[in-house]
Amino acid sequence: MVKATEKAIEKRELVYDRGLSSIEAKKRLETHGLNALSAKKGTSAIKIIISQFTDFMVLVLLGATAISIFMGEMTEAITIIAIVILNASLGFVQEYRTEKTLEALKNLAAPTARIIRDSEIVVIPAEQIVPGDVLILEAGDRVSGDGDIVWESNLYVDESLLTGESVPCEKKPGNFYGEGGVAPKNRVYMGTVVTSGRGKAIVTSTGMLTEMGKIADMIQNIEEEQTPLQRKLDHLGKFIVLGCILICVIVTITGILRGEPVFTMLLAGISLAVAAIPEGLPAVVTIALALGVQRMLKRNALIRRLPAVETLGCANVICSDKTGTLTQNRMTVRRILSGDNSYDVVGESDSAKGGYELNDREIEVIKAKPLALTLEIGALCNDARLVSKKENDTSYLQRFKDKVTKTEKFSFYGDPTEGAILIAAAKAGIIKSKLDLEYKRIDEIPFDSDRKCMSVICANQKGDIGVYSKGAPDVIIQKCSKVLTNRGVNELTPTIRKQILRSNELMASEALRVIGVAYKSIVQGVFDKNKVESELVFVGLIGMIDPPRKEAVEAVSKCRLAGIKPIMITGDHRLTATSIAKEIGIFSEGDLVLTGEELDKMTVEDLMEVADRTSVYARVSPKHKLMIVSALKSKGNIVAMTGDGVNDAPAVKEADIGVSMGITGTDVTKEASSMILMDDNFATIVSAVEEGRVIYSNIRKFIRYLLSCNIGEVLTMFIGMMLGMPLPLLPVHILLVNLVTDGLPAMALGVEPADDDIMRSQPRGSTDNIFSHGLLNLILFRGIFIGLCTLAVFTSILYFTSNLAAARTGALVTLVATQLIHVFECKSEFKSIFEIKFFNNIPLILAVSCSLATILSVVYIPALAKMFNTVPLTLTEWLLIAGFSAFGPILSSFVKPNAKYR
After folding, report:
1. Which CATH class is domain 2-32+106-220?
2. Cβ atoms 539, 341 nearer than 8 A
């Protein structure tokens, strides 16, 4: 049995050395297909264009256009058509761009791959690799397919795109024929990047069968949903259309029954219907959203879909990935224990700016010899190398021989942990390139996951040899017999050993990744490589972490003030995630932390029961993220999901509003998202929330104004006829009112500045409609009052002068004046007209002035007066109009909406 196993292993290794033959590879390519991510057939451009004209409100506007043409109102018809075309164009662009989502996935696959074919190493297009091919992997390579490791040398792979883990994963060969498949440690995945070492992997899956392919499939199967704004406007449009039909029928039949000419009444009914349809609503929504997008772009938020601005404004949950979103996505040394002291590392994580503090006081590292030696060992026992962010080439290293300035900005090649140590050393003026000239590496014992440490053997310019080691603290300390203190080298007693291990546990509990360092000198210059890692001198502990963004703490605080629950979803360890969440303010005492393992044992219903109390999810996979978002949405939440890696894309698309990182985000996530943060700053989301609330608030203001005015117009006609009066307004008057009040003033409300306390209110509920929180009461009350005031002026002038033309002119001017006054009332839902700021919206002032000029022209320019059947008004009539117009705001100031909304 043993011999058979040995022969199988030997045969397997021979196959891996030879690779597939070209003939066999061709057969497998025909069987398995290209190593590419397929996408479901996209919607054609023509279908997308046609779909833009099937929206309910668009159909209403097209009907209004037909009516306007029938009545000879070509200006009205052209305006409506222009609005429809504008909306269709914007909708087409938005939907067409979403078709690129899966195409972006393909860009993550490596364009070429190095493999073994016919016993030779060749480079082929990545899409032509097949199962059974042997991949050659080196630092910097992007893996072309899923596969099993067959050989490695210190191989580490960055899998953050799939797992969210900020630390590269070690890869080792394993038993490829065991039951249950292989462990992730023994596999590599398409799209991940080799950070260090070398290796070989036999391809097991290509194309859509890879882990990335499964994510692509999840994205395809997520259905698009209407945003809250779209749902509310759709509901409003249907409500208005039914009302228009009813208005048209009642007015027409009532007038005919009273003996009015049939054609005149048909014309009056149709005019009211046209006036009652808020054809300006789509235009105002479009303008408000478009201007909001421009403002947000200046604040580093790029909107890919216009309704996303409003949706984010009503979000009450933001699910955020940790790595690169709430944190800097850069391992940074935070603390060093050396000698008898604990030093804090301060300053920026990517530059020499900063230094070291002891008890909150800055110290010179050169005077703290144990600390300096800790950093020197960390830099010597290190395979990473620093490069300049500006030059990004090795020539930059030569300038480090003598010194480094505090303004230097660093990047690095190699392992993130080792890179963090080099940057920490550079803050103390200790540069690896300079050390490498003083200490020549003559041998090394590379890091091994079983040994959990690494050692280098170096000779200085005098020929003296030293051993420098770093690794897991519990492993390093077992190899030590002495310890370096502030008083020199002493024996490592059991008590001191326990103290060091206790310090290690304390640092680990704070989510720090801890590295121990040690050394010893070889006096005689002769050494046995198998015995050099013994009798070492323990020097210190280096603690590092991927630190939170500075802006994240304030952003989270603002979210809570605005009634938004921030949730961290990450692939990192529970302890690390919880520590970061506490520091940022996401996690509070009493909150729950759930792991992917625990989620596997739960249903969506189980998760819904604890979702409100859970603020951190750790060790999760893409399917878990989808499960979390689905559970939160099922509870009626409006969910925003931020992310950067491929693993975030399905959840980002499933969320009500998907937010991608612009700098670190992958193309996949960007295309699946509705909004992109250009600066990768979590705080930018708060700005987006504010803009979303401003836009929704302005749309409510517009609807309040528009419907109040339309109700006033309808009641003026309907009540007048019910009381047996002559028609208070002619059809041409109704259309004129519609033009001067529903046009520029209404549009100007769409650019109203934000209320001072807009970020102190609770988010709107997912079940709230556009009229919630007392808005309908305001609309009805003010609409009735506008109608009654108009009728009062009409009847008064008619009674005292018996001049029908003067009465109709007075009614026309009153109707316009009350509406133009009302537009200022609509600036705030919580303040009366006597409390608002009049001059903080200049476009509104100009729009009202333009409308007033228009109505005065119609009354006093003879040619226009003849066209609209108006006559000049007397001073008494103007005083009557002014009195009734001013009485409305005084009375309506006592009617307020539900304070809960505030």
Report:
1. mainly beta
2. no
